[in-house]
């Protein structure tokens, strides 16, 4: 089971934090309203926390930080993260779900080597060469062609489900499997 964390933040909580810490004493009402609106989020990212913290620091009395030994913005980030609400939700698996593979493990390295070796074999195959040339002539990008060859390599090694289309390469899987069978022969 895979879980994901979603953090939320309320502008009112940031307001209370600023009052409690005596921050944002150098900004006008409009600037204050903007930072509180920015902070009010149902999907808090690190970038958002940093933006809010930088705005708070910019509009705060610098004397507050004169005895601070560490980065003031980092301290503000910590305080903002502390008042976020965290929710842990089961991550739903979709048909197009992308799995992350740790490529630094022995199995990950073995998998990369296996696929790379298969790609090396496939690009020597006249059928694959013709297909790659026709894809290039049809205006496919280098990335699209590389993705297709990689998918072909994986399919000749492991096979693919016989669905109508593969969402990654937008190429009919049954045709891909036919070509994979032809190349594997």
Mean pLDDT: 80
Distance between the termini: 39 Å
Quick one: biggest sheet? Answer: 2 strands, antiparallel
Spatial strand arrangement across the major sheet:
1-2
Counting structural domains, the number is 2
Beta-strand percentage range: 5-15%
Shape: elongated
Ranges where pLDDT stays below 50 over 5 or more residues in a row are 161-173
The class by helix and strand makeup works out as mainly alpha
- The percent range for helix content is 55-70%
The helix count comes to 8
Quantity of strands, as a count: 4
Write down the Rg. 26 Å
Q: What does this molecule look like?
A:
The chain has 185 residues and is mainly alpha-helical. It has two domains: 3-90, no CATH class; 106-184, no CATH class. The protein has eight helices and four strands, in the order E-H-H-H-H-E-H-H-H-E-E-H. The chain has helices at 11-21, 29-39, 46-58, 72-83, 106-122, 126-137, 142-158, 173-184, and strands spanning 3-8, 85-90, 165-166, 171-172. Helix 7 (142-158) packs across helix 8. Mean pLDDT is 80; it is low at 161-173.
């Amino acid at each position: 089971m895979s879980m994901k964390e979603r953090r939320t933040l309320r502008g009112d909580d940031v307001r209370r934090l600023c009052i409690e810490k005596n921050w944002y004493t150098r900004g006008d009402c409009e600037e204050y309203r903007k930072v509180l609106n920015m902070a009010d989020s149902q999907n808090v990212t690190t970038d958002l926390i940093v933006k809010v913290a930088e705005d708070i620091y910019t509009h705060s009395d610098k004397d507050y930080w004169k005895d601070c030994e560490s980065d003031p913005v980092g301290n503000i980030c910590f305080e903002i993260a502390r008042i976020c609400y965290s929710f842990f939700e089961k991550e739903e698996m979709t048909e197009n779900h992308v799995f992350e593979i740790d490529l630094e493990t022995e199995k990950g390295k073995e998998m990369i080597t296996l696929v790379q070796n298969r790609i090396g074999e496939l690009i020597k195959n006249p059928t694959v060469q013709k297909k790659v040339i026709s894809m290039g002539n049809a205006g496919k990008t280098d990335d699209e062609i590389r993705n297709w060859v990689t998918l072909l390599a994986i399919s000749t090694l492991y096979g693919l489900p016989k669905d109508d289309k593969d969402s990654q390469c937008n190429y009919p899987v049954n045709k891909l499997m036919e070509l994979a069978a032809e190349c594997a022969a």
